[in-house]
């Protein structure tokens, strides 16, 4: 057992260094197109934006709006004001070349009386509400609380901010515990019929899939509580099945992420299985979203994960890979450079 654990730890460390080490040198080719073809995405590499700076959109999420993809995430660049927390916004037509718009959130503590010291803002996700024409951002807000707690994760709430434009300055609206429950890591899911859900990790109970209200400003109804403790929760609807994935609770350290399936969001859900060989610890990453790219020829689902660097979060990388998916099985293949054609939906993984 001891030896096995040791071997697993070594394998995970090896994977992280292979992914980050081998690919780190590839920064220049990250989004280079082979002659005429779709651009290459290199998992684990520095991902330069239009300014040549590494994309800062950690724990992020992507929505498509007006034919353009928008990526929101935690901005963790060097030199930020330590009193503030930031959410970045980037856009892309091809999911490879990203243009920085601005930090759409750069806020001091929005609710000091509740969040207390050491406050955090993590895993922002943006929804577009067609009825109100507002962009609605959910985020994990936390802090020491006011009961003299230690560290920054005692409060377990979501925050909501809104904006009239996708990349404008989001205005903080409120924070609360969804349906009265603790909520730390959150995830976003928009079903094929447009219904918007918030996934949230409730430490005493498990993994919630909850529907948002008509205006998206409330978490209205628990659709399912999966009695499984998972962070970085994500969902996709693919060929008539829902696939839920998430990570174990090991902070910034990677662990074997798992998946389950169901024909209805309300369950019953299958047992959870590993998405990759467990010794690789999800190839050193943690899930944040499953991105479905439906094209003229096929549909590809991309696993979006974070490779966290707790000692220098600005340098945290992204592990994106097309999933092998279907008939109730989900597999994250070993990370390799790949191309993704957003028009046809086709992904080609390098040798
Ligand atoms: C992870 C979580 C991250 C961050 C981190 C802090 O498990 O997914 O978003 O909260 O813990 O240790």
Structural topology:
Elements: H1 2-24, E1 40-41, E2 58-65, E3 68-74, E4 85-92, E5 99-107, H2 112-115, E6 120-129, E7 134-142, E8 157-163, E9 171-176, E10 186-190, E11 196-202, E12 206-212, E13 219-226, E14 231-238, E15 241-247, E16 258-262, E17 273-274, H3 281-284, E18 286-294, E19 299-307, E20 317-322, E21 324-326, E22 329-331, E23 338-340, E24 347-349
Antiparallel strand pairs: 1-23, 2-3, 3-4, 4-5, 6-7, 7-8, 8-9, 10-11, 11-12, 12-13, 14-15, 15-16, 16-17, 18-19, 19-20, 21-22, 23-24
Characterization of this structure:
It contains 3 helices and 24 strands. The chain is mainly beta and 351 residues long. The strands form 7 sheets. It has a 4-stranded antiparallel sheet, with no helix packed on it. Strands 6-7-8-9 form a 4-stranded antiparallel sheet, with no helix packed on it. A hairpin with a 2-residue loop joins strand 2 and strand 3. Residues 1-14 and 17-25 have low confidence and may be disordered. Bound molecules: beta-D-galactopyranose (GAL). Beta-D-galactopyranose is lined by residues 59, 122-123, 185, 231-232, 251-252, 286.
User: Structural class given helices, strands, pairing?
Assistant: mainly beta
Fraction of residues in helix: under 10%
Query: Largest beta sheet: what is the strand line-up?
Result: 2-3-4-5
Q: What is the strand tally?
A: 24
Rounded mean pLDDT is: 92
- Calculate Rg over CA atoms: 19 Å
Into which percentage range does the β-strand content fall? 35-45%
